[in-house]
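Anyone up for a design puzzle?
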């Protein structure tokens, strides 16, 4: 699963997409499953406050990595 806005840092962690759009390199902690974007702590908090996005589903960075790894392994056998 290739995710838009995923810019790995030195440790392989994704960067926050809204911050990256502002030319900042902030490590993401959550993934919005609806917007398909990585978010840092500040952007996640803001995302949860907005009426239009407060019901979005957020996934922890580690969970997204685990799902991605499983999908990659499944795709190797097909």
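Challenge accepted. My sequence:
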């Amino acid at each position: 699963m290739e995710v838009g806005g995923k810019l790995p840092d030195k440790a392989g962690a994704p960067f926050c997409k809204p911050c990256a759009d502002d030319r900042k390199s902030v490590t993401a902690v959550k993934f919005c499953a609806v917007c398909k974007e990585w978010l840092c702590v500040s952007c996640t908090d803001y995302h949860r406050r907005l009426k239009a996005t407060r019901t979005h589903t957020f996934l922890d960075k580690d969970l997204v990595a685990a799902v991605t790894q499983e999908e990659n392994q499944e795709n190797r056998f097909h």
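A detail worth pointing out: Helices lie at 17-21, 41-49, 61-76.
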